[in-house]
Amino acid sequence: MEATELLPPVEIVTASWKPVIEPAACQQIATGDFDPKKHIDYEPPSKIHTMKDINFPESIGVSPVAVSEPFRLFTTEAIHRMRAEVLSQEVWDNCQYSSNLAQCQLRGFAAKYAPFVYDTWKNPETLSIISKIAGVELVTEMDFEIAHINISVKSERQRAEEMQAFVDKKATEEDEGIAGCPWEDDKPIVDWHTDSYPFVCVTMLSDCTNMIGGETALRTGNGDIVKVRGPQMGCAVVLQGRYIEHQALRALGTTERITMVTSFRPRSPSLPDDTVLTTVRPISDLSELYSQYGEYRLEILEERIRKQLRTLRENKRVGKKVDIKALKTFIYEQEQFLSHMNKEMVEEDLVTKGNIDDSHLLASGQGDGGDGGNVKRKRQQ
Predict the structure, then answer these.
(1) Nearest to 125 by CA among 37, 198, 65
(2) pLDDT at res. 175
(3) What is the DSSP pairing of strand 235-239 with strand 199-204?
(4) Which pLDDT belongs to residue 362?
(5) In 3D, which of 278, 291, 275 has the Cα closest to residue 242?
(6) 263-315 pLDDT, tens digit each
(7) Residue 1 CA, distance from chain mean position
(8) CA distance 266 to 260
(9) Judging by DSSP bridges, how do beta strands 190-193 and 246-248 pair with one another?
């Protein structure tokens, strides 16, 4: 695979526009609740790549799984229903964000404005499919992070001009026997980043029939760059994106590329929660984000404390001595857990809207894990 250079941050653009996006091919969008028998069309991925496959130690992360090949997940009807909700005027008016990583994003809308989308990702069958591919039982991270949308659009004229420039560049390189920087690396849709959350499922909402490019580039454990084929409409990719730097590469041959990114974390409170808010604080309603983040983290802490309390009571009942070392280790780990929460919940007046720094990148050496350690630490067994 061809390597790409780490791109400098682009100028922050505040999106205050709604791009012209072609309506769904069908004239009448169906109605009714999400029904997995009707709306899921699952075909397992042809291959699931492990962390070891891309040169990371097998112990990093919450699962041995790194990324799947694209797989079919939803029916065409389901995608049309999703598009109708995602591209509604209410969502555009109330849930649009922009940053130096991506110019047009829609966030935090599912619970209020998109009941079909919300129910899709909360459905036990959907969760079971994603968990099976990920190699660990998962739940949605929090409601605010259900169906984050990345959008790249262009006019028909821009599409044609880009295609012509691509053809001309390719012909020149073939004639002169040279190879420049790959065109798709020039202006990525979403620049290099690690996700704030352990796992994501990226679903394609656009027709990619004539698309060239649009892959996801991954930085491997030894620094090489590999590319994962982009999904077709209704298809998805599962990625352990908290632990792998990646970017969404530019696509040609189409006027739109709309992807839906839903974030997940382990269901078990015993597993590490390496969630950070670095890449989402500047593009979120902080009151809602912090409320949901605080609630689920405190629920994890509650479950851990209840489990520890049961152990103490059971040991006392059967006359066993307290394992002081183990108890102190538990207390220290929860102190680290709370300290990390406090660090992530930055006061609103200290957050610059749209400005995401590089502390989320593994190369920066600043990516702390959610249980107090560096993100590149071993999974608990």
Answers:
(1) 37
(2) 46
(3) antiparallel
(4) 64
(5) 275
(6) 999 999 999 999 999 989 999 999 999 999 999 999 999 999 999 999 999 99
(7) 23
(8) 20
(9) antiparallel
**Vertex 297 angle, CA 293 and 302, to 5°:** 150
d(CA 105, CA 150): 5
For β-strands 96-97 and 105-106, DSSP reports them as antiparallel
Going by C-alpha positions, the residue among 268, 243, 245 that lies closest to residue 65 is: 243
Q: Are 106 and 149 in contact (CB under 8 A)?
A: yes
Q: How far apart are CA 223 and CA 344, in angstroms?
A: 28
Q: Which of 258, 23, 15 is nearest to 153 (CA)?
A: 258
Amino acid residing at 381: Q
Euclidean distance between CA atoms 199 and 65, whole angstroms = 10
| CA 212 – CA 215 distance, rounded (Å) | 9
Gap between the Cα atoms of 209 and 214, Å rounded: 12
Residue 148's nearest CA partner among 196, 216, 214 is 196
State pLDDT tens for residues 60-102: 999 999 999 999 999 999 999 999 999 999 999 999 998 887 7
Report how far residue 114's alpha carbon sits from residue 86's, in angstroms, rounded to the nearest whole number: 7
Single pTM value for the model? 0.83
CA distances (Å), origin 100, targets 123, 182, 191 = 33, 21, 8
CA-derived radius of gyration, the chain: 22
Task: Write a three-state SS string for 324-359.
Answer: HHHHHHHHHHHHHHHHHHHHHCCCHHHCCCCCCCCC
Sign of CA dihedral 284, 288, 289, 290: positive
Question: In angstroms, rounded to a whole number, what is the distance separating the alpha carbons of residues 120 and 133?
Answer: 17
pLDDT digits (tens, 9 = 90+) for 136-147: 999 999 999 999
**What does each C-alpha distance from 184 to 215, 236, 250 come to in angstroms?**
9, 21, 5
pLDDT more than 70, % of the chain: 77
Beta strands in 87-159 (DSSP E): 96-97, 105-106, 138-140, 148-153
Nearest to 340 by CA among 304, 377, 298: 298
In the numeric block, the tokens 């699952």 are attached to 42
Dihedral angle of Cα 335, 337, 338, 339, to the nearest 10 degrees: 80
